[in-house]
Specification:
Structural class of chain B: mainly alpha
Oligomer: heterodimer
Number of strands of chain A: 0
Largest sheet of chain A: none
Number of strands of chain B: 0
Distance between the termini of chain B: 54 Å
Number of helices of chain B: 9
Shape of chain A: rod-shaped
Structural class of chain A: mainly alpha
CATH class of chain A: Mainly Alpha
Largest interface: A-B, 28 and 27 residues
Order of helices and strands of chain B: HHHHHHHHH
Chain lengths: 97, 271
């Protein structure tokens, strides 16, 4: 059992020689924060792209309904975007708090 | 993977140790402002408080001046301000609540203009800080929205509103075990929370974006070997200013629109 490196030792090997524990923690937090935001942005990006694309299609087919479609589109964007923004808040919390 | 992480580690250590002419400011330096007076007291006053007061006074004054001697056929300044009222009426209330939502117009219009003017300070030179990039403002506004839509529901449907929300009709009895907690959370907790976080995070992200590009422009400009890069970052900085001008309005619009949608959903619960 002792022959196997612990998870902490594996993590510690990733950092260059002479890194203190506090620095290592900062680096890990920054790296995790970047990944957290990057992952959180994927879904909403696809969602908003699809949503706006469909809205443009609807507006092109029925220009007289453009106003209504636009309002609904902004609503949809607001709901979809919330996920990405929560990801951004997690980024801020991981990086700075 | 290990190579990547170790490279990242080395890079961030390098960034921390390098004596760049313009270091990236600490997050506390760009969002927390020192108190002008009354530090630590309940009446503590700083830049955010000043911006909040301005963004309350300016729209109120404009609307007061425009409506002081209102004419049936508006012209000039009155016409301009009526465009704002018309926008809220046509774009927010009519699609979200319907004709019977006109009595919420004063609340929605003051909410929207308070947020909009507060947001515009993000791109106003010398101020450069949106009042909604601190959690206090969006949180209070979201609590106002929560009180408003729950109040409207209770006023128009009594306790039937709570029943309508927690036990939506047309759901098999057994599914209420699953549906009721979800509805409870999503209506009374996630709705105001997401309202507040949407506004806050959008404005904070915009603020950090502008700070990043401003610092980048100055840093590359002062480092002679990199001066060509600043020809790229400076136009981007201006582009982001224009983008944030749009975001400032869009977020105010979306906040008012969502508040109207929530009020509408408690005025006319699911059919």
């Amino acid at each position: 059992m002792s022959a196997l490196p612990t998870a902490l030792q594996i993590v510690a090997q990733q950092f260059p020689e002479g890194t203190t524990a506090a620095e290592a923690q900062d680096i890990a937090a920054a790296t995790n924060a970047a990944f957290a935001y990057g992952l959180a942005a994927i879904g909403p990006a696809i969602g908003i792209g699809y949503l706006v694309g469909q809205s443009v299609q609807a507006m092109a087919r029925q220009p007289e309904a453009a106003g209504q479609v636009q309002t609904t589109m902004f609503l949809g964007i607001a709901f979809t975007e919330a996920l990405a923004l929560i990801g951004f808040v997690v980024f801020i919390l991981l990086k700075f708090v | 993977m290990s190579g990547l992480s170790s490279l990242m580690g080395q890079l961030s250590i390098l960034a921390a140790e390098s004596d760049s002419p313009v270091p990236f400011p600490d997050i506390a330096d760009i969002v927390i402002w020192p108190a002008a007076f009354g530090e630590g007291q309940w009446y503590e006053f700083n830049k955010i408080g000043l911006i909040s007061i301005i963004s309350f006074v300016v729209p109120a004054l404009l609307f007061f001046l425009a409506g002081r001697n209102a004419k049936l056929v508006p012209s000039g300044f009155q016409n301009l301000m009526e465009t704002g009222v018309d926008f809220v009426e046509k774009q927010i209330i009519e699609p979200a609540i319907g004709r019977d939502g006109m009595r919420y117009l004063p609340m929605l219009i003051s909410m929207m203009f308070f947020i909009w003017v507060g947001n515009l300070f993000e791109i106003l030179p010398t101020a450069n800080m949106p009042s909604n990039a601190r959690m206090a403002n969006p949180l209070i506004l979201a609590l106002v929205a929560l009180v408003m839509f729950v109040g409207v529901g209770l006023k128009h449907h009594g306790l039937g509103y709570i029943k309508e929300v927690l036990f939506p009709p047309g759901v098999p009895k057994l599914l209420y075990i699953l549906v009721t907690p979800i509805e409870l959370l999503s209506t009374f907790l996630i709705r105001p929370f997401s309202l507040a976080v949407r506004l806050f995070a959008n404005l904070l992200a915009g603020h950090i974006l502008l700070v990043t590009f401003a610092v980048l422009t100055i840093a590359t400009f002062s480092l002679t070997p990199l001066i060509a890069v600043s020809a790229l970052t400076f136009p981007l900085l201006i582009a982001f200013f224009l983008f944030e001008f749009m975001v400032a309005f869009l977020q105010a619009f979306i906040f008012a629109l969502l508040t109207a949608v929530y009020i509408g959903s408690s005025l006319h619960p699911a059919h």
